[in-house]
Amino acid sequence: MGQCGSWVSRCGCGKLSARCDTPDELAVPLNIKPLRCPWCQQPVTKKQLREQQQLKTFLNRQPFPCPHCGRQVVCPEQSDTLISVGLLITAILTPLVHFWQISWTTPQQVFALGLAIVIAGILTQKLSKAETHE
């Protein structure tokens, strides 16, 4: 195992190895695209959240202050659920439909459905303004 820690052949730090330990390369689960603050439109990175000790709050889906403007934002779970369901359909259900030879659908249709759900999850993945109770 090399100095680099992600289970990819080449990570963003430019090192070629089996695993990348570079802190910036640790990904928030299922975050496909950079998340932007709905107040100031600045990207909110995992590194910024870690520096402000807000990463655990972010991962628990609780409101946290934006590192740029300080206003409360939250990451809703809906998009992560869509991505997870879409991956489940494409990775698990599609091979089972093929194996069981179900007559009313084809594996290609099931795969397309799962792919459409993943794309919908990616398109809806964003930070939201946290509700304030005054």
Structure, explained:
This protein is mainly alpha-helical and 134 residues long. The chain is built from 4 helices and 5 strands. It has a 3-stranded antiparallel sheet with strand order 3-4-5, with no helix packed on it. It has a two-stranded antiparallel ribbon with strand order 1-2. It is elongated.
- Poorly predicted runs: 1-28
Biggest sheet details? 3 strands, antiparallel
Strand order of the largest sheet: 3-4-5
Rg over alpha carbons: 19 Å
Measured by DSSP, the beta-strand proportion falls in 5-15%
Q: How many strand units?
A: 5
What do the pLDDT scores average to? 78
| Overall body shape | elongated
User: Into which percent range does the helicity of residues fall?
Assistant: 25-40%
Distinct helical segment count: 4
Structural class: mainly alpha
Roughly how many Å apart are the termini?
A: 52 Å
Helix and strand succession?
A: EEHHEEHHE
